[in-house]
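To whoever is on call:

I kicked off a structure prediction for a single chain this morning and the downstream step that reads the tokens threw a length-mismatch warning. I double-checked the sequence; it's 366 residues and nothing unusual in it as far as I can see. Pasting both halves so you can look.
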Amino acid sequence: MVRLETLRGYLLEEVLAWLLRSSGYRLLTEKDDPARPPWKVLEKRKHGLVVRGRGAWHQADTLGEFQYVPPFSLPIRLFAEAKFTRTKVGLATVRNGHGVVHDLNENVVTTLSNGYGPHRPRARYHYSYAIFSTSGFTQDAQEFALAHQISLIDLSLPDFQPLCDLVRVAAKSVYDATKSMVGSQRPTVYEMRNYLRRHLLDMWDEPATEAPSVTDPLDTLAAGLRRRSSLGLVLAFPAAPFVLGLVSNDLKAFVRYALEEPTHAVRVYRSHRSGGHPLWLIEPRVGHAYRLTFSLPEQVEAWILDQEEGTRSRAHWMTRNLLSAITMYWVDENHTHTFQLHYSSDEFREVSGRPMNGFGGTSDLF
């Protein structure tokens, strides 16, 4: 039987896939690879989807592909792994992610033949890895991730707390229900995940559990998310070896503004808070039409706070060089919009104590 902590992570991965759909992230299934061996790279096995690397097949529970392809690049596929634990994610998890994407990106690209027809190239993709954690990351995990471009997204921010609470309650109810079942009646994790995908992502081609004691809390989780469909998470891409998970308490307000002003200037705030590392806040340079929040890996924060130079000088360097242009993609009815947020170092604000300009320590994201 799956551990409660593991089940929370699995359900959180499905929720994240739902939240990231507006960033162009689409979960893949075996049907997305119609090729036959030896060209086939996606395959469904007993415990779910696997993807072929150069040296092995790898489990791909939450593997998605973005609808946009950057210039002079390959189609991007992203593993989204979620850890819903009480302790920080350690080096082993990040090292495993690096091993997976390294093997996949080293996959053979020479032409192949099935022995009966002409040679042809195997389709190629660029695989990336993002790890979401409700409890942050250890120092060595962060250092390794930054060195190997594994993206770490911290879900311990106050804005994510209501979302995490929804997942926590659902996972506990599902866990208690399955614990009371006999082994032959107990649904697999694969079936539970696919039931949630049916209701969140309209994916109906996979087996799913039908046990009411298990499906009822999953229905409640899906309904709770839909009631807050205007709020959520979007990926952003700065000039840095990581992605940002931007969260907003009114994502519709940001989208309305960005559709009218796809490229616009912003102000950046760094807000200190008790009980956690600082928040970074973004708003338009003119007015307060929206607010976006994110956090940086603690090792980056530690670098900013290095005493060899003044804190403000380091923070200015960070925003001037890494956050000066943040690119975001938004998919609306199969049309991909590109937004760019431009920052001038003159607009940087560092806030001690309570955030300024109406930025509260918490917000009603969910």
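Update from on-call: the warning came from a stale cache, not from the record. Cleared it. Sanity check on the structure: Residues 354-366 have pLDDT under 50 and may be disordered.
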